Amino acid sequence: MIDKRLLDKNWRINHLYKIVDKQAKLIVFKENEAQKKYNREAHSRNVNLKSRQRGFTTNAVIDGLDDVLFNRNYNFTLIAHTKKDAEKIFKKAKIAWKHFPLKHLYTLEKETQEELQFAHGSTIRITTSARSDTVQRLHISEFGKICAKYPEKALEIMTGSIPAVPITGRIDIESTAEGETGFFYEMCQEAMQRSKLTNVLEFKFFFFGWTDDPDCQLQGDYSEIPQHLQIYQSKHQLTDKQIYWYFNQRKTLKGKMKQEYPTNPDEAFASSGNKLFPIEIILNKLKNEIREGNQVNEWIFFKEYRPGHQYGLGADVSEGIGRDSNTAIIIDYNIGEVVARYKNNNISPDLFAYEIKNGCEKFGNCVAGVERNNHGHATLLKLKEIYLIDHIYKEVKVDTIFDTEGTKLGWHTNLATKPRAMYDLKTAIEENLLIIPDRALLTEMKVYDREELNKIKSDPEVTNHFDLLMACMVAWEMRKHVVKLQNYNIQDKIIKQNEQNYDPDPNK
Fold this sequence. Notes:
The chain has helices spanning 9-13, 33-41, 56-69, 83-98, 143-149, 151-161, 183-193, 227-236, 240-253, 257-260, 265-269, 279-288, 349-362, 376-386, 417-430, 439-447, 467-477, 482-501, and strands at 18-20, 26-28, 45-50, 75-79, 108-111, 115-118, 123-127, 137-141, 170-175, 204-208, 294-296, 299-301, 311-316, 326-332, 337-344, 367-370, 394-399, 404-409. With 508 residues, it is an alpha/beta fold. The chain has three domains: 4-208, Rossmann fold; 222-269, no CATH class; 279-492, Nucleotidyltransferase, domain 5 (2-Layer Sandwich). The chain has an eight-stranded mixed β-sheet with strand order 5-6-7-4-8-9-3-10, with helices on both faces. It has a six-stranded mixed β-sheet with strand order 11-12-15-14-13-16. It is globular and about 85 Å long.
């Protein structure tokens, strides 16, 4: 007779599997509170930003092994960032299998250093890529470190392993933070900004810092705690034992403390202190200016068009093959506010021109500043066919030797224009001249480093090229050219009025 408890996965997880604990003792695995919460709330796609030693890899091994043992033809694949870590992780699976009390009911067909394959068609294995397989469940450990240290491997995971999981499968990505760039950072930011999940392929965000970890407490002489940490304690409502542990752990990790043991997600990703935009102002904007907006396809509209107001659009163009995004920002110059934004990494440069046209027309045929670097030429070529040519920004160049003037369609980002334009935008932020209700744009501003000012050609190994920020920079620059456009409109109206009043009969 079958024990009915075996039908309950939660019971199986907490009674049938053994692990080696931190004291090197063989014990029955029991979910801790963080693991319980994660297992209870997990989605089909999950990205988990965590502090160190929370046990999520061990939890994944046990939970995934249970899926393998109690399902037919089930492939559970784990990916680690180094071979040494892969061996450590797979050792957990082997220990759990070795001491599994129902082991006699199974036939193990294959056992290697990387794989356990069973007669009922299910497999648990650890690898570096799952491109050629169909994987029902994929767990990626320390993906942040993979992105930072092995960008080619990270790209292979994104393009090969993740697509190997069918729509009915499950993906879990967990890691401590590793800087403010890379796929893991971007996935966390995108998932955090999502107000709700709309389909099974969207990633759900989890954060498990150190403050709810019972091991992160220490008894001691609290008078040693410096004043700035006392303020930190009060701000985050930490107990004396917690702040004393934090104080002592910080001595060892120094500048890596917030990365390895973050109190909140923003701390986890904070790295360089050489940011262009003042962090306190950006954090204040993130707290007070964010709005949902009205989403129409890839456009988000934060405010509707107001007749009589002056608007401008800035666009940053990419290849549109799933990496960098084609982006557009529209600003209302009368009130100093971002009123719309567009972001899409799967639209070609020529089709992007139609989105620019639509955005401009929605806001009174406003001026369009399109970056002409690289793929921008294709966008501008199409845009001048479908939009008002005089409403597309042109760069005017004067040759003082020959006393001639020439124009080039589009905005050119170079080592002269980029720093000047970006500092103009920085001034606007510092002097509170621009309201920004878009979280994604503010997030790019928050992490933008001064060193980026000296970079024009993007690094193909870096996935975040500040696409929204570049579009905003160009849009803010367009305010200087709205007056020229306005003068053109006035002159155009006068000419049309004169044409209407013109009478060919000279005797009248």
